[in-house]
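ok so I'm stuck.
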Amino acid sequence: RLILIDTGMGDKQDAKFFGHYYLHGTDTLDQSLSQHGFTRNDITDVFLTHLHFDHCGGAIKRDNDKLVPAFPNANYWSNAAHWDWAINPNEREKASFLKENILPIQESGRLNFIQDGIISATHKDSNPLTAQLNTGTRDHDPANPLPVTNFIPGFAIRFANGHTKNMMLPQLSYKGKTIVYMADLLPSQGHIPLPYVMAYDMFPLVSLQEKKSFLTEAVEKDYILYFEHDPVYECCTLQQTERGIRPKDFFRLNEI
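replied:
not stuck anymore, here's the structure
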């Protein structure tokens, strides 16, 4: 299996959209795949950490007047609670959950949900926003802030609820090391200090608790953190300092 984790924002949006969200550099997903000897047709699974446009926009492409999967041979993976949260968005996140990125995945028949450890959201409140906010915090367990489930051998999943409902963090076993793909729990190395929480986070105090728990575990177990949004640093290890947990060594994934 050849698994792609997140797809970036893609290129199907209009000029107005890209006037707000500038694509830095000239690299493309196709170029990156080609550098490793692959094409889109080789991808067997697309694993979406969450459905904000900058993480899943490249999952769907325009084919003339149709929206179709950009990876024709792949199964797409999300989870039921996050999917429900995304297709019934609150006003705060509505601009991040774009239907043209999400619904065509389901319509293609290639959508799959991670089942273990997931509690599906139920909206019984008469006020949809209140119901969504309640389900967004209800599933967070302070005693176990980043629960783990297995996807395939060597690929576990951590669930986080501070940034958005049931975001999934891949935890990979590789060359005797544990690599955690940080998605938007820690978008960059600059977010490692505990108080530095993104304004985009739906539940910042939950993010703070998740960060504290994870960083302590990561130092103790010598995890490698892989950053999705850092413009300079790809990976790092951690160390305990007088100022708290901070980066130790920076390196690229291919240097492991």
